[in-house]
Amino acid sequence: MNYKNLLIAVKNGVCIITINRPKKLNALNKETIEELHKAFDGANNDEDTKVIILTGSGEKAFVAGADISEFANFDVEEGAELAAKGQELLFNFVENLETPVIAAVNGFALGGGLELAMACHFRIASDNAKVGLPEVSLGVIPGYGGTQRLPQLIGKGRAMEMIMTAGMIDANQALNYGLVNHVTTQEELLPLCEKIASKIYRNSSVAIKGAIKAINANYNDGVNGFKVEIEEFGNCFRTADFKEGTSAFLEKRKAEFPGN
Ligand code: COA
Prior knowledge:
2-enoyl-CoA Hydratase, Chain A, domain 1; four-stranded mixed sheet; 11 helices; binds coenzyme A
């Protein structure tokens, strides 16, 4: 499929989705959000894709936020609708995707850009990255899950400070906060993401799917994560991957997971 605002590359079981609006610092307009939904859905349904990496084009930005020009004249209903639609189509969708998603944060990740990185399963940053939620400097609050996911990832006090000051932190501070897992150079960013993806690739994709569901369960209101874990653990026992993984261990060989 051809996209206006995205580039897609698939190699060795890894799908790299690049947001490609460099002149607008990859800001998320409505069309890009819709295209991202389709691209993530497509990659998730492609049985050869085991890991997805999301990044931004150019050397300056991952994503500099939601496209401010699109919502500057919105009223209350339109504002709420923008947040609800975006959360459903992209941010919650990515968080709950069965295929692991790594954010390769290659520069500014601001507002919706940081919210998108936070919706990914984990994040790796280049040393030029700067991240923040500047929404209150525009007179709004984060609307794509930022008020929920930032405190989950870095703690309430730090999230309060970042959101209230609308400030940016650099890659090392983000690492220190646990907001990103690794920091590397810009040149090494995608190779490092691919190296980590190759480690994920070797493991059982069905088990990983169950693990994502169980981990995310802890963050869903009214859902008991321990119960979901027990259920997902039990489900593993009917999979071909479980038979292969345990047999391979007992036979002292490497597992070749069929992925079902
Ligand atoms: N929405 C729409 N357009 C955006 C954008 C956004 N969130 N972020 C950047 N752009 C556009 C700029 O308007 C500019 O377009 P133009 O060349 O047609 O004027 C282009 O991207 C380049 O940005 P510019 O501001 O000139 O780059 P800079 O290096 O001087 O500054 C930033 C970089 C990231 C600090 C600055 O662009 C910025 O503050 N962006 C908005 C961040 C934000 O508040 N995001 C949260 C939105 S809720």
